[in-house]
């Protein structure tokens, strides 16, 4: 459980981690003596870790989309209502008429609505291949991938040595028959898997690793929409994902790999699931 706001406010080492601490950590403004506490909290609370990974993803996308606009001048068509009357020296103080002030407030409100709508549209662009939930699905897959691939001692809940139990357990929780595809042809062996949850309910993650220690994950959750076996692609920084729907499940193959290699792995997964 997270304490109330106010972190980043000088809380001492070992104090409960607050929502403010987490945001300060995300902003790179967390005091050094609180970093260990926050990172320990995130390791012990995967839901918070996934939530703040989604925030990081959204911020990166918004920065890419709208960052270049910050340095541009206001277009003439928007600046015109605020320009000083003809013949008045630049820099002269003008007392605005009430209707101009009201118009300015309306413009500001319109710009906020436009930017909010544009931001949501951009978030969906590139992440949403089909269906309204695809953006959230692939964002959850990427967030879960980032949280767990770095784990050394506890990367999975159930190891590959208990594969039959793992697959049976996850199938029961998802309400759909699940398989752990063989990816040895691509150089990857099953490490194991874990049960997760997102806004739609239970989800599962299967993790694979190659001889060099590189890891990929398969993120799976039930899908109420029809099958759409065409692959969709998404990328956030160095992490890429291919995702699709088939047989009542939504799948995402995620990894820090080049697009061609990850595409080949996704093809292998799809083929194994439908053989």
Would you write up a description of this structure?
The structure is a single chain. The protein is α+β, with helices and mostly antiparallel strands and 275 residues long. It has a domain at 134-273: Phosphorylase Kinase, domain 1 (2-Layer Sandwich), CATH 3.30.200.100. It is built from eight helices and seven strands, in the order ααααααβαββββββα. It has helices at 19-27, 32-44, 46-66, 76-79, 98-124, 134-148, 163-174, 259-273, and strands at residues 158-159, 188-198, 201-210, 215-222, 228-236, 239-246, 249-255. The protein has a seven-stranded antiparallel beta sheet with strand order 1-2-3-4-7-6-5, sandwiched between helices. Helix 2 (32-44) packs across helix 3 and helix 3 packs across helix 6. The longest helix is centred in the middle third of the chain and has 27 residues, at 98-124. The two termini are 44 Å apart.
């Amino acid at each position: 459980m997270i304490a109330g706001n106010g972190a980043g406010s000088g809380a001492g080492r070992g104090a409960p981690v607050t929502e403010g601490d987490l945001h300060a950590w995300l902003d790179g403004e967390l005091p050094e003596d609180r970093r260990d506490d926050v990172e320990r909290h995130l390791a012990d609370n995967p839901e918070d870790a996934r939530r703040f990974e989604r925030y990081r993803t959204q911020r990166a996308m918004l920065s890419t989309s709208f960052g270049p606009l910050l340095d541009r001048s206001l277009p003439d068509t928007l600046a015109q209502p605020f320009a000083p009357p003809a013949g008045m020296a630049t820099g002269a103080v003008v007392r605005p008429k009430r209707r101009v002030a009201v118009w300015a407030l309306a413009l500001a409100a319109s710009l906020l609505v436009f930017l909010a709508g544009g931001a949501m549209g951009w978030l969906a662009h590139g992440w949403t291949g089909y269906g309204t939930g695809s953006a959230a699905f692939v964002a959850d897959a990427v967030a879960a991938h980032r949280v767990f691939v770095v784990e050394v001692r506890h990367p999975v809940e159930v190891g590959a040595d208990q594969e039959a139990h793992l697959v049976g357990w996850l199938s029961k929780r998802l309400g759909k028959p699940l398989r752990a595809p063989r990816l040895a042809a691509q150089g990857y062996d099953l490490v194991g898997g874990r049960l997760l949850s997102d806004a739609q309910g239970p989800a599962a993650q299967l993790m694979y690793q190659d001889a060099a220690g590189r890891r990929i994950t398969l993120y799976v959750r039930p899908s109420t929409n029809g099958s759409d076996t065409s692959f969709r692609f998404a990328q956030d920084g160095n992490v890429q994902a291919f995702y699709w729907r088939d047989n009542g499940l939504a799948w995402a193959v995620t990894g820090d790999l080049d697009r061609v290699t990850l595409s080949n792995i996704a093809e292998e997964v799809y083929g194994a699931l439908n053989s």
